[in-house]
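Appendix B, record 7
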Amino acid sequence: MILPIVAYGDPVLRKKAKAISADYPNLDALIANMYETMYNALGVGLAAPQIGLPIRVFLVDASPFAEDEDLSDDERKQLKDFKQTFINAKILEEEGDEWAFNEGCLSIPHIREDVFRKPKVKIEFQDENFETHIKEFDGLLARVIQHEYDHIEGILFTDKISTLKKRLIKGKLSNISKGKISIDYKMRFPDMKKKR
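Structure tokens (predicted):
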């Protein structure tokens, strides 16, 4: 089932999400719905707060990045085969020299900005079977994971841009929160409590 994506301005996007246990109700259905919602919106990641749930769940399918011809064959293969559900994730380490990449967000449509992040991340998480993993990721994959992880910490990519850029997009952000935007997927807007 395709769920509406919560738009910028909704308080749920600013909450630090809570951990869940294996007996969380209808978790399998929730994860399936999140994947369907993400694919419908042409996203590469989606976090539970973006569908209105302040829980520590996010998912990533980096395969669309595998089309990028600027990447090495190894990077493309890594991205093409990567699909993962992250539950109760905790970033253990971020390392390397920060690099910029133009990011966007399904909750903040039509706004993209360069965001600086470290290129390597070590993360502990549980999969959908509640098996615990500690893995390291780098490059674009690390970036997508960091972006989605920020969502469960109540952080948006627009928090990581300069004060000047924030001022320049303030009007656009206000319009998004009021539902004054045209998009191709279902959204829930905070100011008007309406779905589109």
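Remarks on this record: The radius of gyration is 16 Å. The mean pLDDT is 93.
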